[in-house]
Design brief:
The protein has 326 residues and is mostly beta strands. The chain has a single domain, classed as Porin, CATH 2.40.160.10. It has three helices and 16 strands. Strand 4 and strand 5 form a beta hairpin. The longest helix has 25 residues. 24% of the residues are buried.
């Protein structure tokens, strides 16, 4: 009788252990990446009557944790062509990368997110409504092929370096030059952050100049509100000698409740000796964001664009931006 009881107990223990192992094996270690940006917009005035529904961008991908600090991620970016006569959607590989994190060190390789304005974009927090300044005015690309490393020296100090092709994630490497960047992030007090970044994008062609980028950001994040300001300088845009650009962006948000907040932003883009006067402008946005459940956000907003070109009229528009993602 005792033998039967012992055998039954052993079999029960084996069964429980096997179930636990199966549960551990079946537990997903990865996650899907789905983000969809859309909007309805309408302009105002005789020259601002553009209106309609628009699917700005979709990110589809997967991230998988391999264990021991290793993570792999692949993301497709489905967007729109810049060609005015091309109305087809175009799909790009946005990320195809591997990351390794050990202690305070993080290494990334492959088609990775760049560090030029990633920090500012996350602080701004409304990428699906409007790109951050450097992304909006093409001071650099949000992803590129190469390597990056980041190290946290203390709670108040971290630094990062990056080396990439310099041609973004939509183009293959055609030039011999590389893009080098160094960033420093300071947190001198709780919620208060400072970010400094400098980069050189080598041209790799005779008769053209390297492009240099400097950026400075300061921001404060409270549980009820955020305040941020950034200044950006670009020398020799598009590798053209003397084609310098500069500009700043200030933004703020106020949390009204768990599901609603207000946001505002003002940008100004300038060019040396007005070489880019046709595209230089001041722009403002004011709006609200409402969270509908866990995965959906709706953000009505009003926008004002003030071109600096002589004779150009101000543009007014109303948007309802929508986001779905997890």
């Amino acid at each position: 009788m005792k033998t039967k009881v012992i055998l039954a107990g052993m079999l029960a223990c084996i069964g429980i252990t096997a179930q636990a192992q199966d549960a551990a094996t079946e537990e997903p270690r990865g996650k899907a990446i789905v983000q969809v940006f859309g909007n309805f917009h309408t302009g105002f005035g005789a020259e601002n009557d553009d209106r309609g529904f628009e699917l700005d961008r979709s990110y589809l991908g997967y991230e998988y944790n391999l264990g021991k600090g290793l993570t792999v991620k692949g993301v497709m970016d489905i967007g729109q062509s810049k060609q005015v006569d091309d109305y087809h959607r175009i799909a790009y590989i946005k990320n195809a990368m591997i990351s390794w994190k050990t202690g305070n060190l993080t290494l990334n390789g492959g088609l990775i997110s760049t560090t030029q304005f990633n920090f500012q974009e996350k602080f701004w927090g409304y990428r699906y409504i409007l790109k951050s300044f450097q992304d909006q005015y093409k001071f650099g690309s949000s992803a590129d092929l190469g390597l990056s490393a980041a190290y946290k020296f203390a709670d108040w100090l971290s630094a990062d370096v990056i080396v990439v092709n310099g041609e973004g994630y939509k183009k293959i490497q055609t030039n011999d030059g590389l893009n080098y960047g160094v960033g420093i992030t300071l947190t001198p007090a709780k919620g208060f952050q400072i970010r400094l970044y400098g980069g050189i994008n080598e041209c790799g062609e005779e008769g053209k100049e390297n492009t240099t980028n400097l950026a400075a950001f300061v921001g404060y994040k409270h549980e009820k509100f955020t305040l941020g300001a950034e200044y950006n300088q670009l020398w020799n845009a598009s590798y053209t000698d003397g084609a310098d650009q500069s500009g700043y962006s200030v933004y703020a948000s106020i949390k009204l409740s768990k599901v609603a907040d207000l946001y505002a932003r003002f940008d100004e883009l300038c060019s040396k000796d007005d070489w880019n006067n046709a595209k230089d402008e001041q722009a403002a946005i004011l709006g609200a964001q409402f969270k509908v459940g866990k995965y959906v956000k709706i953000a009505p907003n009003f926008r004002l664009t003030m071109p600096k070109a002589s004779g150009a009229d101000n543009r007014y528009a109303a948007f309802i931006n929508c986001y779905f993602g997890f």
